[in-house]
C-alpha cells in the first residue's frame, strides 16, 4: 500500500514537474519573443522610419503661409495631428500591416495577395508554370468562392489591367519618393547653417547638400554593413531629442497647444481660409511622409516590431515635435520659413544641427536602400528589365546595390537640388507622390477587405469613405502643385510604371505562347528519331520558362542544328514567395523520357543571390544533385545501369559544357491590335537594351549560345 502511494505520489510529482517545465519553457519563449520584437523595433528606427521622423525639418518651410494667425497655426496643428493619427495609427498600424503577402508588404504585395485568391491576373500563365506545383494546389484549396467584385475583375480584362497598373504605379511612386526624400532631407538640414551664419548664401547650401548626396551615392557600392550599426542610434537620438525640445517649447511659448486636438479647429480653419486653407493641405500632407515605408518594409521586420516602434516612439515624437514647433510659431508668426531651426534653443543649436544632418543622411540611405530592394525584387519577379544587382553583404540578404539605378538616382537627386534650389520648392514636388501612394493603398486595402477578408459592407464603408474623402482632399490640393514642380516625381513614377507594365505584359505573352506551343515528350521522341538528327558529345543546359513540357525553341534548335547533346538538361528558374530557399531544396531533378534528357528546376527566393560565382557554381550544384538522383532513383526507364548512366554524365561533362538560351522575338504584324502593337514593340525595345539573363548566373561567355526565334502576333 505504501509502495503504491509512493508510486502515485512520484507519478503525480513528475507530471507536475513536466507541466512546470513546459510553462517555464513557454514563458521563456514569450520573453524571448518580446525581447526580439523590442530589438527589431529599435532597428526599425534606422531603416523604416527615417523619412517619416525627419519630416519636421521641412513641413512648415514648405507651406505657402500668408500673414498667419494663432488660429491658423492651431488649425494646421489639428490637421497634422489627425492626419498622423488616422493615416499612421488607424490605417497603417491597425489595418494595412495585416494585409501582408507571406510577410511582404506594399501595394504590389497586396496585388499578389489578390491574384492568389481570385483569378484577376492579366494572364493565367503567370500564376503557375507547372500544373503540378503543390504550392499552387495549396492556394487553390484554401481559396473561397469569389465575391461579386472578384467576379467583376475576373470578367473584365480592362479592370484587371487597371488594377495591375495601379499596383505597379504605387510601387514606382515609392521610387519617386526615393528621389525627393534625400534631396529635401539633406537640403533642409544643411540650411541650418544660414541661421548662425547669414553670410552663407543659398548656392553654397545647395552645393554642400549636393556634395553630401554625391558622396552618399558613390559609397553605395561598398555597402552599408560597416556603418549600418550607427543608423539606429542616430535616428534614436533624433527621435528622442526633438520631442524634448518640443516639450520645452510648449512650456515656454504656449502650454495650451493641445487644445488644438479638438477637430473644431480644423472646421474653423477651412471656414476662415477657404481656398487658401485647401491649398495649404499640400504642405501639411508632408507630415505623414514616409508612412508607406511601414508597410513597404514589412518583409524586413515583423509586424509587431513596426507597431511597437511607431506607437511607442515615432508617433509620440512627431506629435510633441510638431506641437513644440507650433507653440513657437504662435509667438513668432513669421518664422515659418525656417520653422525647425528657429524653435531650437541656442545652447543646443549645434548639437541639434549635427544630429539633424546625420539623421537626414540616414533617412536618405534608407530610401536609397529601399529603392534598390524594390528594383531587385521587381527584376527577380520579372516585372522590370534586367539590371545588374550586386549583393554587398554576405550576412544581410537584403543589402543590395544596382550600379545603373544608383547613378540614375544620383543624377536625379542632385538635379532636384540644383534645379529647385530650396526646401520649399522641393516640398511642392514632394507631396504629389506621397499622397498618391496612400490613396492607392486605400483602394487596394478596400479590395482586400471585400475579396479576401469578406469584411461586412458596413465596416468596409466605415474605412473606405472617410479615408477616400481625406486622401482625396489631399490629392486635389497637391495636384495644384504639379506645375510648380510636382510634375517631376509624377512623371518619373509614370515612366517607371509604364516600363514595368510593358515588360510584364511582354514577358507574359511569351510565356503564353510557349505554353500553347510547348513540345511534349512524344514530339521530342519524334524529333530525335529523325535520321538527320545526331546526339553529339557534351553537356547542354537548355534554359526554359516552363516546366510542363519543353520550350518550342527546342524544336527550332533541333531542326536547324540537326543535333542534341548526349546529356541535355532543361533548366527552369523558379522563384518562390520566400526570402531564401534551403540549399537542400535548391535543385530539383526529374528524368524525362529520352535517354540522357533531364529536367532541372532551380528554386530561388527573392532575396537569394543569383550571381553564382566562385567554386560552387550552377553546373557543380546540378551535377551533384543529378548524380544523387540517379543513384537513388528506382524509376529505371531504360536498360542502362546506374553506374553507366553516371559514367555517361561525367563523360559528357568532360566533353564540354554549353548553356543554350532561347531568344524569342515578337513580330508584330499589321493585323495586330493597337494595344499589342504599342505594348509589344515597346517591349522589344526594352528587351534589346537590357542585360542578358545568362550573365546574371555567372556563365562563361565562351559557353553561352543564344537561339533566335520569331513569334508572329
UniProtKB/TrEMBL annotation:
Q: Tell me where in this chain the K+ potassium transporter integral membrane domain is found.
A: 41-524
Keyword match Metal-binding: no
Which domain of life, per UniProt?
Eukaryota
What's the chief localization of this chain?
Answer: membrane
Membrane topology type: Multi-pass membrane protein
Q: What does this protein do?
A: Potassium transporter.
KW Iron-sulfur (keyword) present: no
Q: Which GO terms describe its molecular function?
A: potassium ion transmembrane transporter activity
Q: Where in the cell is it found?
A: Membrane
Identification of the protein by name: Potassium transporter
Report TM segments.
Answer: 40-61, 73-93, 162-184, 229-251, 277-296, 308-328, 348-368, 405-423, 429-452, 459-480, 486-505
Which keywords accompany this UniProt record? Ion transport, Membrane, Potassium, Potassium transport, Transmembrane, Transmembrane helix, Transport
Start and end residues of each K+ potassium transporter C-terminal domain: 537-712
Gene Ontology terms: cellular component = membrane
Amino acid at each position: 500500500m505504501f509502495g503504491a502511494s509512493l508510486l502515485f505520489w512520484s507519478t503525480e510529482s513528475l507530471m507536475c514537474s513536466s507541466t512546470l517545465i513546459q510553462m517555464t519553457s513557454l514563458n521563456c519563449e514569450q520573453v524571448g519573443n518580446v525581447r526580439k520584437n523590442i530589438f527589431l523595433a529599435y532597428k526599425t528606427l534606422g531603416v523604416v522610419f527615417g523619412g517619416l521622423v525627419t519630416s519636421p525639418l521641412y513641413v512648415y518651410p514648405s507651406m505657402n503661409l500668408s500673414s498667419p494667425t494663432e488660429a491658423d497655426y492651431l488649425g494646421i496643428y489639428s490637421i497634422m495631428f489627425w492626419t498622423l493619427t488616422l493615416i499612421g495609427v488607424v490605417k497603417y498600424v491597425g489595418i494595412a500591416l495585416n494585409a501582408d503577402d507571406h510577410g511582404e508588404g506594399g501595394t504590389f504585395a497586396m496585388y499578389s495577395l489578390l491574384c492568389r485568391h481570385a483569378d484577376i491576373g492579366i494572364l493565367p500563365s503567370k500564376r503557375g508554370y507547372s500544373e503540378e506545383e503543390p504550392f499552387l494546389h495549396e492556394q487553390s484549396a484554401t481559396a473561397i468562392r469569389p465575391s461579386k467584385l472578384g467576379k467583376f475583375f475576373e470578367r473584365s480584362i480592362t479592370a484587371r489591367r487597371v488594377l495591375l497598373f495601379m499596383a505597379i504605379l504605387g510601387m514606382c511612386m515609392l521610387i519617386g519618393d526615393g528621389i525627393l526624400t534625400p534631396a529635401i532631407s539633406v537640403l533642409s538640414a544643411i540650411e541650418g547653417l544660414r541661421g548662425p551664419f547669414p553670410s552663407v548664401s543659398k548656392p553654397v547650401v545647395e552645393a554642400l547638400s549636393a556634395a553630401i548626396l554625391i558622396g552618399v551615392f558613390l559609397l553605395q557600392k561598398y555597402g552599408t554593413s560597416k556603418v549600418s550599426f550607427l543608423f539606429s542610434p542616430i535616428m534614436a537620438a533624433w527621435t528622442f531629442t526633438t520631442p524634448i525640445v518640443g516639450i520645452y517649447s510648449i512650456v515656454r511659448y504656449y502650454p495650451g497647444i493641445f487644445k488644438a486636438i479638438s477637430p473644431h479647429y480644423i472646421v474653423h480653419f477651412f471656414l476662415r481660409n477657404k481656398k487658401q486653407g485647401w491649398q495649404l493641405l499640400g504642405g501639411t500632407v508632408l507630415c505623414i511622409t514616409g508612412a508607406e515605408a511601414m508597410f513597404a518594409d514589412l518583409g524586413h521586420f515583423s509586424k509587431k516590431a513596426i507597431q511597437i516602434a511607431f506607437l511607442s516612439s515615432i508617433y509620440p515624437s512627431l506629435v510633441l515635435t510638431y506641437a513644440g514647433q507650433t507653440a513657437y510659431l504662435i509667438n513668432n508668426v513669421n518664422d515659418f520659413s525656417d520653422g525647425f531651426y528657429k524653435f531650437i534653443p541656442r545652447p543646443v543649436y549645434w548639437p541639434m544641427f549635427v544630429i539633424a544632418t546625420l539623421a537626414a543622411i540616414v533617412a536618405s540611405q534608407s530610401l536609397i536602400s529601399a529603392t534598390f530592394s524594390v528594383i531587385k525584387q521587381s527584376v527577380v519577379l520579372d516585372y522590370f528589365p534586367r539590371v545588374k544587382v550586386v549583393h554587398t553583404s554576405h550576412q544581410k540578404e537584403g543589402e543590395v546595390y544596382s550600379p545603373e539605378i544608383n547613378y540614375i538616382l544620383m543624377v536625379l537627386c542632385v538635379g532636384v537640388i540644383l534645379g529647385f534650389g530650396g526646401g520649399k520648392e522641393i516640398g511642392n514636388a514632394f507631396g504629389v507622390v506621397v499622397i498618391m501612394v496612400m490613396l492607392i493603398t486605400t483602394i487596394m486595402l478596400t479590395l482586400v477587405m471585400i475579396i479576401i477578408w469578406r469584411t461586412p459592407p458596413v465596416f468596409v464603408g466605415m474605412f473606405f469613405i472617410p479615408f477616400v474623402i481625406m486622401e482625396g482632399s489631399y490629392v486635389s490640393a497637391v495636384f495644384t502643385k504639379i506645375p510648380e514642380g510636382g510634375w517631376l516625381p509624377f512623371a518619373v513614377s509614370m515612366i517607371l510604371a509604364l516600363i514595368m507594365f510593358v515588360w510584364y505584359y511582354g514577358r507574359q505573352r511569351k510565356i503564353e505562347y510557349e505554353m500553347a506551343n510547348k513540345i511534349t515528350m512524344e514530339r521530342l521522341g519524334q524529333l530525335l528519331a529523325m535520321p538527320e538528327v545526331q546526339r553529339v558529345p557534351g553537356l547542354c543546359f537548355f534554359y526554359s520558362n516552363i516546366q510542363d513540357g519543353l520550350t518550342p525553341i527546342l524544336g527550332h534548335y533541333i531542326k536547324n542544328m540537326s543535333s542534341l547533346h548526349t546529356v541535355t538538361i532543361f533548366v527552369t528558374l523558379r522563384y518562390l514567395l520566400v526570402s531564401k530557399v534551403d540549399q537542400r531544396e535548391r535543385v530539383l531533378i526529374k528524368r524525362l523520357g529520352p535517354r540522357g534528357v533531364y529536367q532541372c528546376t532551380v528554386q530561388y527566393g527573392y532575396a537569394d543571390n543569383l550571381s553564382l560565382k566562385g567554386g560552387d557554381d550552377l553546373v557543380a550544384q546540378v551535377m551533384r544533385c543529378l548524380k544523387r538522383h540517379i543513384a537513388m532513383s528506382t524509376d529505371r526507364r531504360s536498360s542502362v545501369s546506374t553506374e553507366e548512366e553516371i559514367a555517361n554524365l561525367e563523360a559528357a561533362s568532360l566533353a564540354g559544357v554549353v548553356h543554350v538560351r532561347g531568344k524569342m522575338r515578337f513580330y508584330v504584324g499589321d493585323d495586330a491590335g493597337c494595344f499589342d502593337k504599342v505594348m509589344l514593340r515597346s517591349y522589344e525595345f526594352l528587351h534589346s537594351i537590357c542585360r542578358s539573363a545568362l550573365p546574371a548566373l555567372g556563365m562563361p561567355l565562351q559557353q553561352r549560345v543564344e537561339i533566335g526565334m520569331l513569334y508572329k502576333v
